[in-house]
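Structure ticket #2291
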Amino acid sequence: MSKAGLRGARRMVMALVPLAAIAACDEAAPPQQQSAAPPAVAVITVERQPIASSAEFIGRVEAIDKVEVRARVTGYLTARHFNEGDMVKAGDPLFTIEQAPFAAEVALRQAQVERAEAELQNATTQVERGRELLRTNDLSQARFDDRVTEQSRNQANLAAARAELDQARIQYGYTSIRTVFDGRAGRSPLSPGNVVGPDSGVLVTVVRDDPIRVVFPVTQRELLRVRRASAGGEADAANRIQVLVRLPDGTLLDTIGRLDFVDVTANRSTDSVMVTATVPNGQHLLTDGQSVTVVLREAQPQQAIVIPQSAIQIDQQGVFVLVVGADNKVEVKRIRTSRGPAGQVVVTEGLEVGQLIIVEGSQRARPGQPVTPRPLQAPPEGAVPANAARAG
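Resolution: structure written out below.
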C-alpha cells in the first residue's frame, strides 16, 4: 500500500472512533432507565369502622310553654316583682295592680250579702209565723202567699249578692298577676305608675325553655330513610335517631334531643314534612324563635368502609380508586359510594378490607405499573397545610 493510502485509512479509523463511543453510550443508557425506582405513593389500608349516617336541616326553636301576660283589670301598676330575664317559679307574683278600689268593692259586696241574708232570715220567719196563723184562720191565704213570695224574692237577692261578691273577689284576684309555670321572664315595657288594663297589650312574656322544642322540615327522601331504618314505627324511630343542634357559631349543643312528632301532611310546594324534637336546654343556649341547624344522626353506628375523598377519582365510566395489588402494581377498582363524614365517603361496593388504596401521589401512578407504597403519615399536631400557608 502506498503512503497516500495509509494516510487515508488512518483518517477513516480516527473518524470512526467517536461514532463507536457514541454508540456505546447509547447502548449503556437503557440499563440506567430500567434501574430507576418505582414512584412513591401514600396508601392506607381499607378497614371497616363505625359510622353513624347523618343529615342536616334548618329548623326553628320554639318554647314548649309560652304565655303572654296581660292585665285583666284596669288600674295603676303599683309593683313589678321581677327583673327582665329572671327565672320565675309557678305561682310567683309578676305584677301588682292597685288593690284598694277592688278591696273596697269586695267589702261592699260582702255587706250586700250580709244584708240579703238578714232579709231572707226575716222573710223566712214571717212565713213560719204566717203558716201558724193560717192554720187558726187569723191570716188570709192571700197574705200568706205574699209572705212566701217575699221569702223567694229574698232568696234570689241573696244568690245575686253572693254572685256579685264572687265576681268582686275574682276582680280583686286579678290585681295580683302570677306566673302559671316555671320559666324565664322576658322584656317588660311597663314600670310601676303606669295605668294598665285589658287593652294595654303584653306586660311580659314568660317561656319555659328547658326542655325546648325544635321544629324543622324533613325531605321525603330523608323521612323514608328514617322510617325504613326504624321498622318499629315512630316510637322506634325516636330511639334509633339522635337529634343534635348546631349553634350559630358552628358548635354542637352538648345535649341530645329526641324526635317526638312527625306531621301527618306534607307541604305540597316543598314536598317536605314538619318534624318536631324535644331538646334538653339546661344551659339556656337555645332561645325561642332562634334559627338553628338540626342534625339527625343514627343512635347506633353501623360498620362500614370509609375512605378519604382524596382517594376518589372520576372518569367517564364512573367513580374509582387506585389499589396497590400484587407485586405492588397499580389496579383500578370501580366502586359505589354514599355520603360520609366530612372529608370522607362510605364505600358500599367495590372494596374489601385489607386492600391498599392510594390517597396521595396518584398522578404518578399508572395502572399496571409498579409503585413504592408508603403508609400515609398524619400531619404533626398544629401543622399548617401547605396550601393554607400559600394562601396566607
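Closing remark: Confidence is low (pLDDT under 50) at residues 19-25, 380-392.
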